[in-house]
């Protein structure tokens, strides 16, 4: 009888401890006999053998694969259901030297994520997709998946899948191989030692092609799901080999480098594309009186809330700052709630969402009450009124009441109330120069009469702050500074 040496090892691509588990931190959360654990091991070994661990990014979406980031010691993203190929595309395009992996189940990739995978493959994105096909929804209780076999029962088709009602199983490897751009597509299985070894080779080849910059690669992996199939692990693997492979034949469906014609993008600056060359040249100058700040501007639809945010963002760009503008609004064009986040920074902006703005511009009372509590403790609130509501507690924040709507009416148009508030904002915070605001308005406003009103509105807003807030102001118990 031959003697065998038992060799066991844990890939260096895995963490030493799986922190999701309070106990048994050397074991995974996958069910006994599940194919995910085997696939994880094959992928980890391939990453280690190719020497790309330090530049690998793994994208795991919703499903049994969602906790892959607890196991792989690489860069990790967790994507929304079905969106892994889109996230992987962004990761690869912004980090071209990285190795980007999208790891998805059949419900995720072939159902809710059909559009993402088809278009990523059609564009030939240089990413690698590992597609776990166990013919069922695993994590959420065994519903019918796009890959469920005809006649196979599930919680949503207890009588079995009917081709005349639910259609036939979708064969993703075959379907994607009809596209021009994919470089390598293969279907493998995790049914026994022989098929696992073939899967190992396919996984490594897919990653190696990405490393070479070849293009889109995908390995579909037929995998056992003993728990949902109500089979023991050995029987589940046997079912993969004897049943699942009959409907999803193993093999290579694409292994070639397509000829992709290259068309260079036009070499034009953003200013040239937007037709702002003249204006940008006029305002190209050293930064003058610019400050980093974050703003939330809120009010009713129709008060120019979003436009005010756009103007401020455009001003920041012209002062060579990093900017972001994120709008939020309801379905109503008028009278519905609307607000936007604006960031102005001399450094890169990590997220357009602002939890605690330094400045709140509240164009109405509901916005004041809703957003004031989130303003930074040392922040500023500009409120469109002469006084604060009597029961409003500013909690120590600096508040300037600016009756922008009244001032706009006096100027001659209620439409410029947001511009009055812009003037007040610039004077109160000194975040950007007023001259830049005038430059932006001259570009955006084509109506000469309205432009003249806007210029008056900015000056009126500045003047109100100068005369009623900054000069001779007396602090009141309610936080309002008045004469």
Helical proportion? 25-40%
Rg from alpha-carbon coordinates? 30 Å
Strand order of the largest sheet: 2-1-3-4-6-5-7
Q: What is the overall number of helices? A: 17
Q: Give the terminus-to-terminus CA distance.
A: 101 Å
Q: Total number of β-strand segments?
A: 15
Architecture overview:
- The chain is α/β, with parallel strands linked by helices.
- The chain has 17 helices and 15 strands.
- It has helices spanning 35-50, 84-94, 106-112, 114-123, 163-166, 172-177, 193-211, 226-229, 233-247, 270-273, 277-283, 305-318, 365-371, 404-411, 417-429, 434-444, 448-470, and strands at 56-60, 75-78, 99-105, 128-133, 184-189, 217-222, 251-255, 293-300, 322-329, 337-345, 359-362, 380-383, 398-401, 474-475, 481-482.
- It has a seven-stranded mixed sheet with strand order 2-1-3-4-6-5-7, with helices on both faces. A six-stranded mixed sheet has the order 9-10-8-11-12-13, sandwiched between helices.
- Strand 11 (359-362), helix 13 (365-371) and strand 12 form a beta-alpha-beta unit.
- The longest helix is centred in the last third of the chain and has 23 residues, at 448-470.
- The protein starts with 34 loop residues before the first helix and ends with a strand.
- Mean pLDDT is 89; it is low at 280-287 and 471-483.
